[in-house]
Write a structure and sequence with these properties.
The protein is α+β, with helices and mostly antiparallel strands and 509 residues long. The chain folds into two domains: 315 residues, no CATH class; 114 residues, no CATH class. 24% of the residues lie in helices and 25% in strands. It contains 13 helices and 24 strands. A six-stranded mixed β-sheet has the order 16-21-22-3-23-24, with helices on both faces. It is globular and about 70 Å long. It starts with a strand and ends in a 46-residue tail after the last helix.
Length: 509
């Protein structure tokens, strides 16, 4: 779970410091920088998994993938920053498996990871290179948990199951020296026991965290696994509609691929993790849960199944309507497929970590947006219950520009992305983005220091985007004597004026 993110020098993120809970909604206008926050999170995830240059190439730019490493750095005019810094606080899984299949147990699950990267003009690469200037992995004491995990939660059930262990030694990863003598040290979990592995930073093609293993650095490995689990879901209708081979992966892809295979194996996964009466009963129960959730979006759902084609060795998701007509995934609408994929994800107890989703309202009828939001909130963990197979360590971050979404989410989950003007370290005026909470929520009350909250006027204009229907009077002198006709809009109809949803009308005195 990502509980805090600090970024500076990445795209238009400068001195950004955000606290996260199990469910967060980032709202703001197009182009303000909402997606840059997701890009920063995905970049960190890629750095834990790939060589630095490959991680940089995976970051999106306006045309798709990054074609110039420089474009990742904050820019003012034609000048770029030379460094970018990231710091995350996170809760990692207690146990996991390394690349060699060996099991690892974290000595402590609350950690802080920091990394600083610099731009390096590299003649060997047209794109330029990234230099590792600092990398650190530290523990957060369990006794300090109340200072770091500010979102509402149960201490006795949720926190005591998620935040465990202790660390008596120093850092798990540390940095020493400067310039060509800079060294990154990977310490063993034993604290003072055993010599750390020292690697010259100048020759490192990837982060030290990405090299951790179960035998010597189990806690660093679990931090790596946590960051690798951060995903940006971009559910593509073509991938959602595609049937799966019998040998296909049983985990939903970031593009929605392997929907049928994941749905087919859900009962088997639940049978493995729970005491159940049998596989057939488990399948019936799981498919019924998915069907019930899908019926929140569309009324015509009787049941859901997976067509098992032995001849072609293909699996296909099928939705059967109330009249008994089966509809394969190929015939379902885009919005229905996305909702179905998220309903499957909700029941997949093996799918943990951070899930980022852009504009979940796309393809959804406005009346069904509450159903989508309820589903997304239910995908996130329940912080009043202990972490376990029925409550995996899972969180959701969405972004949106829809007033209909903003109006219906919990008020303490909202952060509004706002563009503002600031001075950089050289005194140049530049545009950046800040993420402001609502007043009187835990994001404002519990965070130390000055917090810029959303103004009431800003929020009201966001929730009420309709402007007065004023005529265009024209600009020429010949237009002054024309009769101006204003077409009546839907919202201007007299028979719709008295209808104000959720507004209480006071009794006359």
């Amino acid at each position: 779970m990502l509980t805090r993110l600090k970024v500076t020098g990445f795209k238009n993120l400068v001195d950004v410091d955000i606290k996260f809970g199990p469910f967060t909604c980032i709202a703001g206008a197009n182009g303000v920088g909402k997606s840059n926050l997701f890009d920063a999170i995905m970049f960190l995830s890629a750095l834990a998994d790939k060589p630095r240059l490959d991680a940089a190439k995976s970051v999106r730019d306006e045309e798709g993938r990054t074609s110039d490493i420089r474009s990742l750095f904050h820019r003012v005019g034609n000048d770029y920053d030379n460094q970018m810094t990231f710091e995350v606080e996170m809760i990692v899984p207690l146990k996991g498996i390394d690349d060699l299949g060996q099991e690892a147990h974290a000595s402590i699950t609350s950690l802080r990871y920091a990394i600083t990267l610099g731009y390096r003009a590299d003649n060997g690469h047209k794109l330029g290179g990234l230099e590792l200037l600092r990398e650190e992995l530290k523990h957060i004491n369990k006794g300090d948990a109340s200072k770091h995990f500010l979102f509402p939660h149960s201490v006795n059930t949720w926190r005591n199951s998620a935040v465990t262990g202790r660390r008596s030694g120093g850092d798990f990863i540390s940095t020493e020296g400067e310039g060509k003598e800079r060294v990154i040290k990977l310490h063993q979990d034993g604290g003072g026991h055993g010599r750390p592995r020292s690697i010259l930073a100048a020759t490192l093609p990837r982060t030290v965290l990405s090299t951790a293993n179960a035998a010597e650095n189990p806690t660093a490995l679990l931090a790596k696994r946590e960051m690798q689990s951060w995903r940006l879901l971009q559910l593509e209708p073509a991938a959602l509609r595609k049937p799966d081979e019998f040998s296909a992966p049983t985990k939903l892809g970031a593009d929605g691929s392997h929907l049928a295979a994941t749905l087919y194996h859900l009962p088997k996964a639940q049978l493995h993790s729970e005491q159940n009466n049998g596989e057939v009963d488990s399948a019936t129960a799981v498919f019924a849960q998915v069907a019930n959730r899908l019926s929140d979006l569309i009324d015509d759902v009787r049941d859901i199944s997976v067509d098992y084609d032995e001849k072609r060795e293909l699996l296909t998701a099928v939705v059967t309507g109330r009249d008994g007509t089966p509809h394969s995934a190929r015939s379902l609408s885009d919005g229905t497929l996305r909702f179905l994929a998220l309903a499957v994800l909700e029941l997949d107890t093996e799918a943990s970590g951070l899930i980022c989703l852009e504009e979940p309202e796309n393809g959804i009828h406005p009346e069904r947006i509450p159903a989508m939001l309820n589903l997304l909130k239910d995908i996130a963990m329940d912080t009043e219950e202990p972490i376990g197979t029925d409550n995996p360590l899972r969180q959701v971050i969405i972004n949106t520009h829809s007033p209909a979404v903003v109006a219906q989410i919990p008020d303490d989950s909202l952060l509004v992305a706002e563009s503002f003007e600031m001075k950089n370290t050289t005194g140049q005026r530049c545009k950046a983005v800040r993420f402001s909470p609502l007043p009187d929520t835990w994001r404002q009350k519990k965070v130390t220091g000055e917090i810029e909250v959303v103004s009431k006027g800003k929020l009201l204009s966001y929730l009420n985007p309709v402007i007065p229907n004023e005529p265009d009077h024209g600009y020429g002198a010949s237009d002054r004597n024309k009769v101006i006709h204003v077409k009546r809009r839907v919202i201007d109809r007299p028979d719709l004026q008295p209808y104000l949803p959720n507004m209480l009308v006071a009794e006359p005195k």
